[in-house]
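check these tokens.
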Amino acid sequence: MLTADNLRIPKSWEILAGADTGTYLGGAICAIDPDYELYVLEEFPNYHYTGDGTIELTGMTVSEWLLWFRSRMHRWTGQSRNFAWADANTPFKTEVIKGFRFKMNRKPLELRTEITREYTRSGRLHLMPWLKVIPYEMEEAEWPEHESVGSGKMQRLKKKDHCLDGVEHVASRRPHPKFRLETPGKAKTMREQLARRHGMTMKPPAQDPHLGQN
């Protein structure tokens, strides 16, 4: 059975992480291949959603969450020192635990969200089958009914998105070309190789109109 512990990522792929460091801690570790395909490998919530969609903390301490995040980054990168991208206003301004720190991502939320939508619409964002929180947060992503007052821009509402924030941080930090929409039935070589190697089927991201469609 394929799991996050026996999945092997080619050395030519880049491993990046992003996080939300508020009361609800969330994060994601992703892999990006040379063809700009983005794979969400793991998620790191200190919370869970109940059956009615209410968000509840699990009781995990900040230290426990940081140790969990650090250990998994080490598993994927093989390096003793790693980092995750986070909002510029994160309270974690320096190395928070030996071998792990946060870097300030000053790209605005609107840009981060739009880049993630571009990955999704082009069929280049892939969710590992064991993820639970991020697929739900993609489905629950909300936008205001009217343009933001004064700005003339549409911006995603900030709720039910703590691990999704991590994915958006990663997507915004990786240079990428203007994607063409994926042709139905046309597979990507690197994705096929990964799937064939592990006998896996990629879980498609939620077809939410705000994240995946025009």
Summary: The chain has one domain: 14-212. Residues 14-212 form a domain with the Nucleotidyltransferase; domain 5 fold (CATH 3.30.420.280). The two ends are 36 Å apart (CA to CA).
